[in-house]
Fold this sequence. Notes:
191 residues, mainly alpha, Four Helix Bundle (Hemerythrin (Met), subunit A), 66% helix
Amino acid sequence: MMQTNLSIIAFLVLVALLAGRALTLRRKGIRALVFGKTDKSDFLLLLLVAWLLYPALAKAIGLPVLEPLVRPLWEAAAPGWAGLALCALALAGFAASLKSFGDSFRVGIDEEKPDRLVTTGMFAISRNPLYLCIILFLLGIFLVHRNITVIVAVVVFLFAVNRQIIREEAFLKERYGSEYEEYCRKTRRYL
């Protein structure tokens, strides 16, 4: 139960980091949340988040949930602690990536007011450090909850992230041209 509660707190920290950055940019007159503006199917990710969150929250606070969805695939505490450590590492990387992003941070593709191309900080290590950190975070959540719900969410999220990265890369190539192509030659998509 302690690991479950800590994983919920970790998720809330992830949301707070994201919301805090968006609010900071909003105060500067920058609209960071452009999610779904280019493609309405992006909102399907919200269903994925609900799919992931509800069973964990339901089990933690006693709401109704189908037992097979939350039944652990194995019983062992050590993987859960390793998962929480992975979540902490992912949160640190996520925060560092947000800092590296500066005023260029957007949730979604901002076709109207994109900022400069970011290639330094965490973006010198990976072209997609935020997505990479979210993937690591979800793998950590899987190790904590180790159930079918999280497995499905992680697999669907991997496909959704890959789709989004391909869309973003096409936009960045068109927007920044040879500068982006040079960046791609120097920095890998993931690691």
